[in-house]
C-alpha cells in the first residue's frame, strides 16, 4: 500500500503504549541480561534467479526452496528482462543453499493462474500448494494440489475441490489446514477455513469465519491453530483479525480483543518454540501495520511495535524476527527510524524485545501494488525473499533474492574536506558513512600514504554524524590525505586525495616590524610577511586528484 498521512495513528499508538509497557520492559531487561542483541544475517544479496512476475509464496523442504506466484518464466542472476528465460508457470524450485535452479517444474494454470500459498508436510515428503488454478501439471484440480517432493510429481488422488482462492496453508502430521476466500470444500460448507487429511478427504474440523483468511500457523502441542485475516467474527462471536482455534473441532480457544483496529488485517503468522508472531496491514485512519509477539502458552502479548508500513511476512530465525513490509516510520520502536518520506522494505528485530536491529537490505516497491517483498522462508541458513520488487540494494533484481551469513559488502567511502588549517595543524572533516549490516564503522586517515589516525563511530542511514580529525603538521608543508572505512570484515576503497598546503608561520622580522611600527604608520608588504597568496591558510591544491 502507498504512503499515508501519519497523524491518523496517534490514537492507536497511545493505546498500544499503555498495553505493552510492562511486558516490553520485562522482555527488554531479559534481553540485556542475556547478552544484548542477537546477530543477524548479512545484508548483502546472494546471486539469485529472477522471475518475470510476482512471487506470492515460498516454502522449504529437504534443502529445496519452492517459489510460487504469478509468473511465466524465470531468468538467471544478473540477466535483464527477456534474457536467458526458462519457462516456469507460477512455480519453480531451487537448491536452498546454492540457489541452483532445479528441474522440478509442474505448472499451475487456469482460473487466476497464480499460486498464493505453499507449505511442506512436517516430514518434507509432500508440498501442499494453493491459490487460484484448475490444473496442476496435467491433473485437473480446484485451487489446491499436493506434490511429492522426491519425484516432483503431482498427487492425482489429492483433489479436495476448493470453491475459491486458497491464501494460506498449514500442515501437521496428519492434517492439512487451508484458509482463503472459499465457502465450500469437497462440496460441503466450509467458511474460509477447512481441514483435510493427507489424501485430501475433508475432516470434521469446522469454523464459521465471515471474511477471508490470510494466515495460518499450527501449535499442536498447545492445542491450537492460529488464524489471521480480514474477519470480524468467528463462530458467531467478535474476533478481529486473529483467533486461535481447536485444531480438531474448530471451536474458538482464544480471541485477541484490542490487538487490531477494524481497518487492519493479519497477513502473516509464524512461531518459534515459545512465541507466535503476527504482522498486519491496515487501510484508512486509525490503522495498525506492525508486528506483535505473543506467548504460545497462554496467548498474552509479549510486545507490539508501532512501525508504519504494511507487514506482509514474518519469519523467526536464531533469535531474530525478519519481516517483509514497507516500513516508513518506526520512530517509536526501539532502534527505529523517523519518517523521511522513503521506505525500508526489510527489517530485523529481536524476538525478545522488538528492538530493530542494524540490518537494512532493501528493495524497491516494484510491480503491482508496489509493496515490495511479500514472502519469506529460511532454509539451510539462507533467508529467501520473494515479492514484486525489481531492485535489491539498488541493483536490478526481480521477484526473488537471498541473504546468507557471509558479509561481503564494504561501506561506502566518504569524501574528505578541509575544515581549517593553521601553521601547525590541519583539521579534516567528513560526514560518517553507513553500512547495511554493521552500525559501528572504523575510519582510517592516511597522510602521504601513511596511516596517522583511526576513529570508530556508530551510524545509520538516517543518522550520519559529522566527524573531524586534527593533524599536527609542520608549517609550510604540503600533504595529501585520504580516508577509508572498514566494518571489520570489508574495507572500502580509499577516497580521492585531498591535497593541503599548510600556512607558514610569520617570520621574526615581520613580527618585530609590526610591533615597532607607529600605530598610524602604513603597513609595509614584505616578501616574508604572512602566507603567499598561493599558500593561503588551508589552501587545497588537488581535492579531486
Structure description:
The chain has 545 residues and is mainly beta. It contains two helices and 45 strands. It has a five-stranded antiparallel beta sheet with strand order 41-40-43-44-45, with no helix packed on it. It has a four-stranded antiparallel beta sheet with strand order 1-37-34-33, with no helix packed on it. The longest helix has 24 residues, at 10-33. The radius of gyration is 30 Å and the shape is elongated. The model is unreliable at 1-34, 517-538 and 540-544 (pLDDT under 50).
Q: How far is it from the N-terminal to the C-terminal residue, by CA?
A: 46 Å
Which quaternary structure do these chains form?
single chain
Shape: elongated
Percent of residues in helices: under 10%
Percent strand: 35-45%
List how many beta strands DSSP finds.
45
Q: What low-confidence regions span 5 or more consecutive residues with pLDDT below 50?
A: 1-34, 517-538, 540-544
How many strands, what sense, and barrel or not for the largest sheet?
Answer: 5 strands, antiparallel
DSSP helix count? 2
User: What is the average per-residue confidence, as pLDDT, rounded to a whole number?
Assistant: 89
Derived from helix and strand composition plus strand pairing, the structural class reads mainly beta
Output the radius of gyration.
30 Å
Sheet with the most strands: spatial strand order: 41-40-43-44-45
Amino acid at each position: 500500500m502507498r504512503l499515508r498521512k501519519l497523524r491518523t495513528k496517534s490514537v492507536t499508538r497511545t493505546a498500544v503504549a499503555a498495553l505493552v509497557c510492562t511486558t516490553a520492559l520485562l522482555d527488554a531487561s531479559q534481553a540485556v541480561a542475556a547478552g544484548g542483541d542477537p546477530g543477524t544475517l548479512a545484508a548483502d544479496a546472494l546471486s539469485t534467479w529472477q522471475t518475470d512476475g510476482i512471487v506470492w509464496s515460498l516454502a522449504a523442504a529437504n534443502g529445496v526452496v519452492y517459489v510460487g506466484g504469478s509468473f511465466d518464466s524465470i531468468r538467471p542472476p544478473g540477466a535483464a528482462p527477456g534474457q536467458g528465460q526458462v519457462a516456469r508457470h507460477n512455480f519453480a524450485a531451487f537448491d536452498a543453499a546454492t540457489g541452483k535452479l532445479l528441474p522440478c517444474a509442474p505448472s499451475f494454470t487456469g482460473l487466476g493462474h497464480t499460486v498464493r500459498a505453499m507449505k511442506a508436510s512436517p516430514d518434507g515428503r509432500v508440498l501442499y500448494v494453493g491459490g487460484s488454478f484448475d490444473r496442476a501439471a496435467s491433473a485437473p484440480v480446484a485451487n489446491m494440489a499436493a506434490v511429492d517432493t522426491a519425484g516432483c510429481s503431482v498427487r492425482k488422488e489429492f483433489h479436495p475441490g476448493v470453491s475459491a482462492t486458497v491464501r494460506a496453508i498449514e500442515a501437521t502430521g496428519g492434517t492439512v489446514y487451508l484458509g482463503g476466500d472459499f465457502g465450500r470444500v469437497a462440496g460441503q460448507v466450509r467458511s474460509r477455513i477447512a481441514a483435510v487429511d493427507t489424501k485430501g478427504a475433508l475432516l470434521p474440523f469446522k469454523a464459521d469465519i465471515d471474511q477471508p483468511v490470510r494466515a495460518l500457523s499450527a501449535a499442536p502441542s498447545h492445542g491450537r491453530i492460529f488464524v489471521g485475516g480480514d474477519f470480524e467474527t468467528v463462530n458467531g462471536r467478535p474476533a478481529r483479525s486473529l483467533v486461535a482455534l481447536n485444531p480438531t473441532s474448530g471451536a474458538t480457544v482464544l480471541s485477541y480483543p484490542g490487538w487490531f483496529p477494524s481497518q487492519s488485517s493479519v497477513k502473516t503468522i509464524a512461531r518459534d518454540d515459545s512465541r507466535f508472531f503476527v504482522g498486519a496491514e491496515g487501510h484508512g485512519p486509525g490503522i495498525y501495520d506492525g508486528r506483535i509477539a505473543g506467548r504460545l502458552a497462554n496467548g498474552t502479548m509479549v510486545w507490539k511495535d508501532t512501525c508504519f508500513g504494511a507487514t506482509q511476512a514474518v519469519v523467526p530465525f536464531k533469535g531474530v524476527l525478519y519481516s517483509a513490509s514497507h516500513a516508513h516510520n518506526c520512530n517509536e520502536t526501539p532502534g527505529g527510524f523517523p519518517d523521511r518520506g522513503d521506505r525500508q522494505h526489510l527489517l530485523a528485530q529481536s524476538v525478545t524485545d522488538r528492538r530493530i536491529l542494524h540490518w537494512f537490505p532493501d528493495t524497491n516497491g516494484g510491480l503491482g501494488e508496489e509493496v515490495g517483498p511479500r514472502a519469506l522462508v529460511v532454509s539451510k541458513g539462507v533467508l529467501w525473499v520473494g515479492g514484486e520488487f525489481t531492485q535489491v540494494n539498488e541493483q536490478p533484481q526481480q521477484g526473488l533474492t537471498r541473504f546468507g551469513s557471509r558479509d561481503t559488502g564494504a561501506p561506502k567511502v566518504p569524501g574528505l574536506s578541509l575544515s581549517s588549517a593553521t601553521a601547525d595543524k590541519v583539521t579534516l572533516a567528513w560526514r560518517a558513512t553507513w553500512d547495511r549490516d554493521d552500525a559501528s564503522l572504523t575510519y582510517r586517515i592516511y597522510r602521504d600514504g601513511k596511516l596517522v589516525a583511526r576513529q570508530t563511530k556508530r551510524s545509520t542511514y538516517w543518522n550520519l554524524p559529522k566527524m573531524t580529525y586534527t593533524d599536527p603538521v609542520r608549517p609550510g608543508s604540503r600533504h595529501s590525505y585520504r580516508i577509508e572505512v572498514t566494518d571489520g570484515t570489508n574495507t572500502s576503497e580509499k577516497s580521492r586525495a585531498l591535497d593541503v598546503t599548510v600556512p607558514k608561520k610569520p617570520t621574526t622580522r615581520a613580527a618585530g616590524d609590526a610591533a615597532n611600527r607607529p600605530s598610524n604608520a602604513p603597513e609595509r608588504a614584505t616578501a616574508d610577511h604572512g602566507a603567499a597568496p598561493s599558500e593561503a591558510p588551508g589552501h587545497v591544491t588537488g581535492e579531486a586528484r
